[in-house]
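Most newcomers find our protein records easier to grasp once they have seen one. The structure tokens are whole numbers drawn from a learned vocabulary of backbone shapes. The record below serves as our worked example for the rest of this section.
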Amino acid sequence: MTEETNTPKTGEDRKPSIPPSLAAAVIGRVLGGSENRAPYCGSFDSDAIDALKKLSQEASEPKVILVPTAGLEPGLPPQVPIMWDRAMQEPVSLLETLEAARPKMVRKGTATVETLSSFIALVNRHKDANSAIFAATSWPNPKLTAVLDYHTTGHDARWGRHRVEYAFPLTEEFKTWIKGNGEASAMTQGDFANFLEEHAAELAAPTDGERQEFETLFKERFATPAELLDLSRSLEVYVGATVKQGVRPKNGERQMVFVTEHTNANGDQIDIPGIFMVSVAPFVSGDAEPQVVRIPARIRYRMKGQEAIWFYQLYRWEYWLRERVQRDLAFAAQETTLPTYEGKQEMAA
């Protein structure tokens, strides 16, 4: 019997091969009936052994196959991996393995809201028994911060990375009053008259307690909104007039004497109250009822040549603003049933 052999190639074209007689013997052993075939009498070289090992491994190792999903239900990725078990000749799902490798979802991040009512609603949606609210109550950066995953009362540590923040956005009306506050923002007589008329909706009558406290403090008379509007109209009449003199009667009013080119030295007098009350919502409220602050303001003027320039001074407005923030903090505590602290949490976001 002539033995068939393969002549190995040389150089880069040389590849391991299996002698046909050896392959026939292996196939015969697998398929059966080897007693009717001539035994293989050759030797196994290293290339043949390596080739057989490779064939054996490829025949038994599972293979990952990417199955296209075009035309199937929406929401699927373009391809889905499955494992093909060659020994069992059946697919094996990889979903459980992949899901086990997925990182655990963690609640984190900071939500920013524009109103106190939104702050309360979002905190109530995500809070748990250990959530807490921290507050910065002073100007210029008042803020409420709810740490939803705060440390537990049983002293177990948590990350503190899931938060809701409310930074008390200011209304345009409040910004205007703050911007015009003080002598640095002094106005001409006509501008001051126009300012009082434009902001008539933010003027308020003093309560009996406010009248007693601040008239005693400043030795000035409180003006009602109607009196302030009368003052603004009187000032408009005397735009361009020369101020002759000012006197203070016993009733606490100041009087200014205006001389125009059509009057004599006696001139005409107007009474100037010394204090008025500003009632303005400092923070954007959205659909909720606006919550105001009441700030006493002093009417002031300075002579500039023979003309008067006017300004107002808000009395301790930072104090009244902080008081408003503290009341909002107390309301948030009531509506969320969470503990509140004036200060800053210890963990970084």
Summary: The longest helix spans residues 317-336. Residues 1-9, 11-18, 26-34, 259-266 have pLDDT under 50 and may be disordered.
